[in-house]
Amino acid sequence: MVHSDGPIRATSADPHDPSEGDRGAPSNLYEEPNLRNPVIHEWTTATASTNDRLVELLEAGADLPDFAVVGTDHQTAGRGRLDRVWTVPPGRALTFSVPVRVPSDTPADALGWLPVVTGVAVRAALAEAGVAAQLKWPNDVLVDGRKICGILARMVVHGGRTSVVIGAGVNVGLTADDLRAGGVPDGAATSVLLEGGRTDRDALLGSLVAHLRRTATAVLDEGSAFAEGATAAEARAAMVTLGSAVRVHLPGGDQLVGTAVDLDAHANLLVRPDGAAEDATVRVAAGDVVHVRPA
């Protein structure tokens, strides 16, 4: 995936003769989409936030198919949880967002799993690129404790429909110097390059979207039963938070210290506070989790 000269959209008067402004788009833009060749609705050299751009498109009435990609080579004002702003040098990350329409009969308790199963999809795509990764609740992907991907999901109501916008930023070509220049503490983050994986962003995007289609569709199809199904079990098995001693920084400034023991039916984290009875847990729906040590 290389730089483009402006917005790239999945429409062209002649799909086999892209215009000057379309040069540099992901190589699959003008091909028939398939499971490893996702629809690229738009790809730009730079944008503030792919999530915000996709929300803007949906609210303006754009009719995007599920899992159509809105991406950029350089996200200049990306936000993570708690509105943290983060940026990386141009072309060093895979940064994109996709919409997923929510059927009207989908139970609300299932939707909390979408960020988690996005992590499952990222982990599977990274494995195909030669990088073994793990999940951290609620929306990070790690390699031996070092962050390689962040995920942010947002619900949008548009035209009488509800969609979840799922954004991901995978560190692909970041070097150790890039991380230091960005003020990242040693050992806090990594990239596909630093882990010795294959850094083909086209291949990684195709793999990730294909796996996300599988995991997100499972959430929507299985509904309330999802939490006890195979994909939820896959997520739990990959999540290093579970079984770890944690310190959770809760909204409002409180802290909860204990052991993370499971995910509930809504994908909330269940924490057994230090000193509490074996079966006593606190449900955490939102918070910043620090892994203290293995339990």
Total beta-strand segments? 14
The CATH class assignment of the largest domain is Alpha Beta
Percent strand equals 25-35%
**Which structural class do you get from the secondary structure elements?**
alpha+beta
In total, the number of domains comes to: 2
Helix percent reads 10-25%
Q: SSE order, as H and E?
A: EHEEEEHHEEEEHHHEEEEE
Main beta sheet, described? 7 strands, mixed
CATH domain topology of the largest domain: BirA Bifunctional Protein, domain 2
- The CATH architecture classification of the largest domain is 2-Layer Sandwich
* Average pLDDT, all residues: 86
> What best-fitting shape do the alpha-carbon axes yield?
globular
What would you give as the CATH superfamily of the largest domain?
Bira Bifunctional Protein, Domain 2
So how many helices? Answer: 6
Low confidence ranges: 1-33
Strand order of the largest sheet: 1-2-5-9-8-7-6
Distance between the termini: 42 Å
Description:
By secondary structure, the chain is an alpha+beta fold. Helices cover about 25% and strands about 30% of the residues. The chain is built from 6 helices and 14 strands. The chain has helices spanning about 50-60, 110, 115-130, 175-180, 200-220, 230-240; strands at about 40-45, 70, 80, 85, 95-100, 135, 140-145, 145-160, 160-170, 245-250, 255-265, 270-275, 280-285, 290-295. α3 runs antiparallel to α5 and α3 packs across α6 (about 230-240). The longest helix is centred in the C-terminal third of the chain and has 22 residues, at about 200-220. The radius of gyration is 19 Å and the shape is globular. Mean pLDDT is about 85; it is low at about 1-35.
